[in-house]
# Entry
Amino acid sequence: MRIAFHTPLNLFDDGGVSGDRRMARQLVAALESLGHVVEPVKIGRGYLRDSSATSLASLQAEAEALRESQLASWRDGTAAPPDLWFTYHNYYRAPDLLGPEIAAAIDIPYVTAEASDAARRAHDEWAPHTAIVRRGLDAADLHFHFTERDRQGLEPWRREGIALLPLPPFIAFDSEPPVHIAKTGAPRLITIAMMREGTKQNSYLALARILDRIRDDDWRLSIIGDGRKRGEIEQAFAGMSGRIDWLGLLGRDRALAELAAHDLFVWPGVREAYGLVYLEAQATGLPVVAFDSGGVSATVKAGETALLAPEGDEAAFAAALSTLLRDGNRRTAMGEAARSFVLTERTMARAAEKLAAGLAIACGNRSLKRSTATRGKAS
# Structure
């Protein structure tokens, strides 16, 4: 099939390194591995920094112009229309202003992945944006959900003709990732995250407080990342001088090598969507300690490859981390299980199988709706 691939949140080919951009690229690669021709939709970034009517109207005008241009080119034969529309990561700050209308206009399946509904935003200043998202959810033939939290939010839209299908977070590597090799000395902790305001900064500050609770344990922490909040984050760790190594930004191969050279991956993950970095760490043979927050649990096997503390319970997080610091045999067993889990269960090949099954369901649902509409007109 020819698939139009739309990413409202961020431009598909802007070179960004965020997790959602990487997942978008992985989805395209997985679809292409199935033999589909994937064409990223060429439109400006659809992320809304504020809820103003002016900002939304500007995006809507741009989307309408592109929609009419595309429809005209398909109708006059100057361009080949898509056989299916696939939208990745639409929510109230980045609603899909193209897919539902285009899919309806040319009668093709409409599929989403990582779409989400924010019920609490349906009655505040974001209500118009949430209404747009909900109309799109109601127009789809299939929703792929990455996490249990997303599934719960999408359940009101499950019915005949709209399917929900799990697509667990997955990770792709150009070659087999390096594997952890145990060394003597103090256990080496590592974390990787950008240093920006909001949830990332909150997780860094939580990690600093957690480590302060286990000063008497033997450990050393490496931090990979940088950003505009680095100064404040460094200050939070200032009382641990001599135990923190600031590695800055690293390319992916260097980061994977650093992961393999450490013993434990620690990242609170406060309100993380899911976090591909957890999969990368496990792929190199590292167990994980994190909060059971957001979609983190979708990236690990709790109790087998990771220890998850209740969200916000820093004492429980510190206790879990201390347990693994003091038990090298358990760290090793969990690390081996972690690598096996990611390299067998969370691969692009496994994701492609789920995508293939989902697209078949979507096409079937669209055909059913088409037949129902035809019967309705005939009667």
